[in-house]
Each structure stands twice: as structure tokens, then as C-alpha cells.
């Protein structure tokens, strides 16, 4: 619980130190009274893995993260509830497994308890603030494998209506994961298609920032440009992979990803809506010069879907 309050303090400092931005990208809505039942899905695929290669079988893998939500109003402004997440991945190739074909799979993820306020505050210059705080319970297979105790996420969106057609938003997420161990056994497929087991480090902090500019055709339809940073911090450990000397602690540098790309929002009805993203993702330490070139090895396509029952 101490870490949760530290997370609020860190996120609160960061929200006061950056310019504010719009909530056009918030899709999930709640009934005016009673319980709301909804479904969310994030489906993504990597562009280069969908390209045909004669020396490989299969096609790019479609990875999905989904959850069912039961929510209600706690009071006039505050909502809360439970999310039941699960992942489903099709058979196919992905970059994580060095392009080797993986089987389809479905598994539960960590249960989420959340509180949310769509209009937490109205700041000067008519900047509105959206907030959601989440507690992740270690029910997923990866959390059990890594010895996760729990995770806490603080999410803000600052919104500014620039004109009748344009919105500007700044989206900020801070997530802390409390781990019982600093490293765990991780199995993946190597370049030769063989199974390799090594010691991998567990995550501690994740910081995400995204800035969006939206051009709105109407309240449910628009196109935009999104740019963001994602930083992931890992624990250090005395455990070592097979390739390292036993006297050398296992460490991993902070991962700095930079993201850029267009987005489109559209709806089938007032209860079914979507955001489609095409994103260029580069590592700031490795290939920063490639940002904006949208090479297939760096790009991914993602569809966010919301359904309210």
C-alpha cells in the first residue's frame, strides 16, 4: 500500500510539470444508473511478420488483450468496478519469438479493481482532467510465474478543446509492479527453433506519455496524430542467464520506446466504437533515427474496440 501512495505522489508531481491535453480517445461509457456491462479488446499485429517469406510458414500473429467489465456509479462523479481480463493470440509469428511460428493460445490475465472519474477537475484555460486508478491482482499465469504481489496504475488524461473541430490531449500512465522476486525462469524459441530457458528480470516501473491531436467530424468520428514515450524499468538480480558469469549480477537497462503514428476513431452505434492506430515504434537507444520512416520492422497495427451491453 505504501508503494501505491508513492505512485500517486510521483504521478501527481508529473501531472503538474507537463502541459495538459482531450478525452476524445476515451471510449468506455457508463449507464446513468445501475450496473454497466461492457467489453474491451485491443488487437494488434506486427507489420513485418505479416509479409510473406518463402523460407517461413504461417503469417503474422494477432495478439489480443481483452476484458469484461462490471461497473457502477459510486457517487455522482466516481465510478468503480471489476475487470476480468484475458488474452487470446492466434497462431503465427511475432518478433518476441524471433519470427518462429507459435501456436494459438488463450489464458487469463490479472484481475483489475478500478475507480474512475471522467471529470476529476477543471483546470485553468478550460483543461479537463480524467482519472482512473487501478489495482491488479496476480491471477494471470505470467504474474504467478514471476512471483508478482500486485500492481498499481495511475492514469490521467488532460483535455483541451482547441476549436469546434480540434481537440488536444495529453495521456499519462504510471504503473508500479510489486514483485516477490527480481528474476524468473523464462522460456522462448531461439533462432534455430529450439527452446531456450534463461533468467529474465521482472519489471518495476512503467511510465507512458502520449500526446494526441484529433480532428473531429462529429462526436464519435475523427482522425488524429499520436506521439508518445514509453519507459520500462527492471529490477536487478543476483540470478544470471546461462551466458553470464555467476559472479556478475543480472541487470537490464531502462527501455525507452518512442511511438508515432496516425489514428482514426469511429463507431457503429452509441454502444459500439473503435480506435484504429498505425504506429511507428523505435527504441531510443538503438534506432532513433528511423522514427517517422514507418519501416515494416518497426510498425504495428492496433484496433481498440469497446462494446457496452
Summarize the structure.
With 309 residues, this protein is mainly β. The chain has a single domain (2-308), classed as Porin (Beta Barrel).
CATH domain class: Mainly Beta
Spatial sequence of strands, sheet with the most strands? 1-2-3-5-6-7-8-11-12-13-14-15
* Number of alpha- plus pi-helical segments: 2
**What is the β-strand count?**
15
Sheet with most strands: 12 strands, antiparallel, barrel
Mean pLDDT: 85
Helix content: under 10%
Structural class: mainly beta
Would you tell me which CATH topology applies?
Porin
Beta-strand content bin:
over 45%
CATH superfamily: monomeric porin ompg
Which CATH architecture would you pick?
Answer: Beta Barrel
Number of domains: 1
Straight-line N-to-C gap: 34 Å
What is the chain-wise order of helices and strands? HEEEEEEHEEEEEEEEE
How big is the Rg?
Answer: 20 Å
- Poorly predicted regions are 8-22
Shape label: globular
Mind sketching the topology for me?
Elements: H1 2-16, E1 35-46, E2 63-73, E3 78-89, E4 105-108, E5 111-123, E6 127-137, H2 141-146, E7 148-161, E8 166-179, E9 183-189, E10 195-201, E11 203-216, E12 222-234, E13 255-269, E14 272-283, E15 299-308
What does this structure look like?
With 309 residues, this protein is mainly beta. The protein has helices at 2-16, 141-146, and strands at residues 35-46, 63-73, 78-89, 105-108, 111-123, 127-137, 148-161, 166-179, 183-189, 195-201, 203-216, 222-234, 255-269, 272-283, 299-308. Strands 1-2-3-5-6-7-8-11-12-13-14-15 form a 12-stranded antiparallel beta barrel. A hairpin with a 5-residue loop joins strand 9 and strand 10 (195-201). The longest helix is centred in the first third of the chain and has 15 residues, at 2-16. The model is unreliable at 8-22 (pLDDT under 50). It has one domain (2-308): monomeric porin ompg (Porin, Beta Barrel). The two termini are 34 Å apart. It is 7% helix and 55% strand.
Amino acid at each position: 500500500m505504501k508503494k501505491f501512495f508513492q505512485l500517486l505522489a510521483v504521478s501527481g508531481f508529473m501531472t503538474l510539470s507537463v502541459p495538459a491535453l482531450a478525452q476524445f480517445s476515451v471510449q468506455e461509457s457508463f449507464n446513468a444508473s445501475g450496473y454497466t456491462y461492457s467489453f474491451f479488446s485491443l488487437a494488434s499485429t506486427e507489420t513485418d511478420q505479416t509479409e510473406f517469406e518463402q523460407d517461413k510458414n504461417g503469417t503474422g500473429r494477432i495478439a489480443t488483450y481483452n476484458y469484461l467489465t462490471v461497473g457502477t456509479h459510486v457517487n455522482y462523479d466516481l465510478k468503480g468496478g471489476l475487470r476480468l481480463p484475458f488474452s487470446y493470440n492466434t497462431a503465427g509469428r511475432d518478433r518476441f519469438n524471433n519470427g518462429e511460428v507459435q501456436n494459438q493460445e488463450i489464458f487469463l490475465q490479472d484481475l483489475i479493481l478500478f475507480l474512475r472519474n471522467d471529470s476529476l477537475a477543471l483546470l485553468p484555460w478550460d483543461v479537463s482532467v480524467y482519472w482512473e486508478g487501478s489495482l491488479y491482482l496476480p491471477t494471470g499465469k505470467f504474474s504467478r510465474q514471476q512471483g508478482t504481489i500486485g500492481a498499481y496504475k495511475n492514469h490521467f488524461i488532460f483535455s483541451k478543446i482547441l476549436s469546434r473541430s480540434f481537440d488536444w490531449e495529453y495521456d499519462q500512465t504510471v504503473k508500479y509492479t510489486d514483485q516477490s522476486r527480481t528474476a524468473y525462469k523464462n522460456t522462448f524459441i531461439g533462432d534455430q527453433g529450439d527452446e531456450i530457458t534463461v533468467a529474465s528480470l521482472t519489471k518495476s516501473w512503467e511510465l507512458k506519455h502520449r500526446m494526441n491531436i484529433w480532428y473531429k467530424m462529429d462526436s464519435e468520428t475523427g482522425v488524429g496524430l499520436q506521439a508518445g514515450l514509453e519507459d520500462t524499468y527492471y529490477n536487478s538480480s543476483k540470478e544470471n542467464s546461462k551466458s553470464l558469469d555467476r559472479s556478475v549480477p543480472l541487470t537490464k537497462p531502462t527501455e525507452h520506446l518512442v511511438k508515432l503514428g496516425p489514428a482514426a476513431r469511429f463507431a457503429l452505434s452509441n454502444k459500439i466504437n473503435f480506435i484504429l492506430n498505425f504506429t511507428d515504434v523505435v527504441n531510443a537507444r538503438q534506432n532513433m533515427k528511423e522514427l517517422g520512416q514507418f519501416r515494416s520492422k518497426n510498425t504495428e497495427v492496433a484496433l481498440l474496440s469497446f462494446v457496452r451491453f
